[in-house]
Amino acid sequence: MKTTAISLAVAVALTTPLLAHADTVLYGEAKVSVDYVDNNRDPDSYWDVVNNGSKLGIRGNEDLGGGLSAFYQYDFSVDMTEGGNFAGLNQKFVGLKGNFGAVTLGTQDTPYWKVLNVVDIW
């Protein structure tokens, strides 16, 4: 519990100055399901609350003038079934965009993941 409170306090302290800017967005997704696990009619069958990729993040951009803009994204997983504890980093990058296209530095989704993510069978 202390770790969650400290993490939340640090996140708020670091993002508060960014939220004052008009082009900053704080976003998230809570993906949780209630599943019934049936072990072939075994008495050990049970109901379970499962986290399915919940995340929280911040992203934004800043116009630098002259046709250039800087942008950033910091996205991390949270485990909603364990009190919202930090579960790992997803995308985290900064970039520069202009007439030439965009250049980024950091960790991002791969093209393979982006293609697979288009098809959502659920």
Helix proportion range:
10-25%
Distance between the first and last residues' Cα: 33 Å
| Global shape | elongated
Which segments are poorly predicted (pLDDT under 50) over 5 or more consecutive residues?
Answer: none
| Structural class computed from helices and strand pairing | alpha+beta
Strand content: over 45%
Number of domains: 1
How would you describe the overall organization of this protein?
- The protein has helices spanning 2-19, 111-118, and strands at residues 24-29, 32-37, 46-51, 55-65, 68-79, 85-98, 101-107.
- With 122 residues, it is of the alpha+beta class.
- It has one domain.
- The strands form 2 sheets. Strands 1-4-5-6-7 form a 5-stranded antiparallel β-sheet, with helices on one face. It has a two-stranded antiparallel sheet with strand order 2-3.
- Strand 5 and strand 6 (85-98) form a beta hairpin.
Secondary-structure map:
Elements: H1 2-19, E1 24-29, E2 32-37, E3 46-51, E4 55-65, E5 68-79, E6 85-98, E7 101-107, H2 111-118
Antiparallel strand pairs: 1-4, 2-3, 4-5, 5-6, 6-7
Which descriptors would you attach to this protein?
single chain, alpha+beta, about 120 residues, five-stranded antiparallel beta sheet, two-stranded antiparallel ribbon
